[in-house]
Amino acid sequence: MSDFNDYSTMLISIEQKTRALENKCLNKNYAGFTGDITSIQHELTMLTMWITQAQGEQIRENTYRILNKV
Q1: What pTM, to 2 d.p., does this model score?
Q2: DSSP state of 2
């Protein structure tokens, strides 16, 4: 799925790229702007996939506990 170990790594990466993008905007340096946005969108998509998978695992665990009264 991803080479990220957990969601905090993804969030830190997104934050760093967003700050770099902010600096480009402030300095009116638009070179590579679209690529930066695309990269952020990709990481947000990966984060969404990771969260969806984690939620699915939680649901399965909770369902198992309920059904088996663990």
Answers
A1: 0.70
A2: -
